[in-house]
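Co-fold these.
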Amino acid sequence: MAVTRHSDAVAPVRSSGPISIWFMRHVSTSIGSLGRLFRQPFASLMIVLVIAVTLAIPAALNLVVKNAQAVSSGWDNALDFSIYLKRDVTESEAAGLARLIQQRADVESVRLITSSEALADFKQQSGFGEALDQLSENPLPHTLVVRPSPANTSQSMILLQEELANLPESDLVQVDTEWVQRFHAILDIVRQAIVIGATLLGIAIVVIIGNTIRLDIQNRREEIEVTKLIGASNAFVRRPFLWSGFWYGLFGGGLALGLVQYGLFLLEQPAARLAGLYQSGITVLALSLQESLAIIGIGVLLGLVGSWFAAARHMRRIEPR
Amino acid sequence: MMIQLEDVTKRFPGGQEALSGLTLSVDKGEMLFVTGHSGAGKSTLLRLIALIERPTSGQVIVDGQNTRRVKRRKIPAYRRQIGMVFQDHKLLYDRPVSDNVALPLVIAGVGHREASRRVRAALDQVGLLHKEKQNPETLSAGEQQRVGIARAIVTRPKLLIADEPTGNLDPDLSLEVMRIFRRFNEVGVTLLIASHDISLIDRMGCARIELDAGKLVEHDTEEDDLWQ
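Predicted complex below.
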């Protein structure tokens, strides 16, 4: 049995540079905490799943609002005026009027839909084709579809609308902006509701992770006592629990991202069909890279906050007896 | 002087006095036994040195540091300078022997290669190198205590304190443990060992002090043991 020499026995503990120690400690502690998670796969998976669902719900709702806003902002710029001309306006007069309006600076384009075109369209789309054939004369007026230039403000739009309505040939000017504005107001409320809901769900995640870590601390009470007895600092005993919180948050956030992406995948086909029906180029907006990172980042942050609270609260009380 | 106690009294909240006006000193390189009945204050003495408790009054000075001036935040760093051995070993049963012994080095932030070298050296010193991969649960009580000792000396502390280290061991194993302590003492480690096993202490021929009701009773010097 070897016995150390005297000089050896009293040599102080030598250690490498402080930063590499700090780094290596964290690497080994994080791997240790990860291993602990995997040793209880079912319990860990349950917690990760709860976090993932809790994160995915507000993320998905946020995406819905984002898409709704994108779609409706498209309507905003493309708010066309429909000028229904008086019945006695002839087709050539209508075409002349169209050219006239076309020259205005605040108008981008004017399209003439003659009464016969309108009727043909209506026959095709309404399904009343044969019934409409019974009509002795075309009840539809000529219509000018005026697309205002994108440079218009909402005020100049109102002015344009008034001027178009005051044209002697014009019977009725229709522009349906109100429901768009209402829709935007609703979206704003929904968005705020999501923020409030997400905050509450975030608190729930902190509590869930905090409680999990608290149980973990209680189960490892003896280990904590022994390590403190042989000189471990609070920071040292806290570290593995913070890493557990980090991993829960990371996996929860990652899985939440996966759930949202899978949901988008499921919605892709129906959305494309809907876009086809509306004859628009609407595509479903996916999560941007920043949003994806934000979901994972929020998961990690909440995991760390939850484990920090639990560790700070329960660790100090465990002192060697 | 490695340990100096000056008029140390420890009174517990119930009013019961574990130590009353105790003054003693332990030289550097000394191996001193503390004996006495249970409740005489042996454990309290060691707990004051390890800063698990603080004295009600008086000074405890360890290796030139007055423990009164060690702030709560600094207690871990203070404890790392002292090797501690416990009656119930206080090993962690969720990891192998080598990881148990490595724990103080991990806490101190010693690099992996250096740590494993020292763990093997420490286990070799207690004769358990061949069991480094086993779980402590599979070891006998005597072997577990030797693992505890290896953990206490792996950081090469100048001072080792042990509370009833042979309390659960039969005489042969006790003697083996004491011989290990003796070898550390021979290379300059100061040891303070609480034990009620007087026959064993006499066989070791070491200095001892006796506590009774928190007071010093007698103070044998090593010369007294020469007749053995």
